[in-house]
Specification:
The complex is a heterodimer of chains A (203) and B (288). By secondary structure, chain A is an all-alpha fold. Chain A contains 10 helices and no strands. Classes of the chains: A mainly alpha (203), B mainly alpha (288). At the A-B interface, helix 2, helix 3, helix 6, helix 7 and helix 9 of A face helix 1, helix 3 and helix 4 of B.
Chain lengths: 203, 288
Amino acid sequence: MEETELIKLAVDGDLDAFNQLVLHHQEVAFNVAYRIMADENAAADATQEAVISMYRKLDTYRGGSFKSWFLRIVTNACYDELRRQRRRPTVPIEPETNDGELIESPEWLEDKSAGPEEVLGISELEEAIQHCLSGLDKKFRVVITLVDVSGEDYESVARIIGTPIGTVKSRLARARQKMQHCLQGFRELLPDQFRHNIEENDE
Amino acid sequence: MNRQAEISEKDMTLLCEYLDDAMSIKDRAKFEKRLQQSPELKQALEDMTALKLGMRSLPVRKVPHQFTLTRGEAEKARRGRFLLSSFGWASVVSMILLAVIFGSEFIFSNFSAPQPAYEEPVTMMLENEAATESVMKQAEEEDAQPVYLLNWVSVGGKGGGGAGGIGGGGSITGDFMVGLGGGPVETYAEDAVAEPLQAEDLLEPTEAARMLSEEKITVEPLIFGVREDQLGQVIAVQPDEAPVPSITALREGVEAEKEPLIATNIKLILAGLAAIFGLIWLLLRFKR
């Protein structure tokens, strides 16, 4: 069934049609959320919230790209999640000695088994990029994620984040510049081409 | 030295547009010329290309679980939406009603023209209640003495003479007044004050005046609201007996004027409802 047909059925209250749409776009939505949130659980929460929110707002969908509309809801859910995290920052588990002093790097917390990165086969490059991405201001992070990770064009991004296209361009330029600066610290992790470029820049 | 520092922000934006294929053909050709001439710009483009490739090479994460909704979740989401919109609208309607009430009261109290003109003397009367009552008592005491309203005009002298007559009757100065049409008329203050005057004692119309009077009757003009055949007669010996509104009646009137259009209780209830609905709406929204 075509997407427009599914959208029509979903707007009319067909839950199965709605779920079909979710299945079709959930991977992109989750990946965008993951790059923005830099945490799998938070990204999953944000994506689930976005799906629920999308179901509630189905009657406000006014045509156009469904993917862009969904991504807009996802980015808003990510912003909400980030705000929530700022309001309720997580406290790291740090055991205390009998005297009440904190134990640094407690052995009992060390995980001797393979880390999730190894299990998932995530490269060091990804780690470096994600680190730099997380260091960006969220307005830059969202733009570079949507353009470079999700592959959206400028107009779509402008619709998703609700800003003029000129703002998207300038934010993207700033975001890429900041990313390049940040990645200079990880030159040994980067592929040859990238490393070569950075070394030339340093000369 | 980092070459990126030499690239302006505008050029960085142009590089992005070039890289993301967001330039028009004309602009693209122009920018390509610039790229050939500027090694810094060319280097920056290579850096940016590498970054973009790096970003694109990031592995696609598998979703930890399906994000589809069950029937129960969908029902819950729909219910939440209904409650949220209901409380939101209820709050908005209450606020609008309150605004309409306060707005209309403000308009009625500030822009209805006759009200301030009427309120002032009534308020002043109430403020001077004691003074008013004493005046009324004094008037009652003097009620025994009749008050005379006299027409002091002859037909022939209704010009200057008429006016002189009225002036002479009203005042006690005893001026000598000249009636332009009716000839000289003498009045004395002692006559007016000592005892009630008989009209015929005060003025005997002349023959010529009588003739003129007969001519005028056909026209029947009113002189100071009095028919000509009533001239020179006593038409009232009592002050105007129109009923004077009592002070309590006036006070009630003023209180009725001051009473708001909508009872204060209703306004309070509306304000309370608006606040409660608004709070519930905020809570639901925050919870979501």
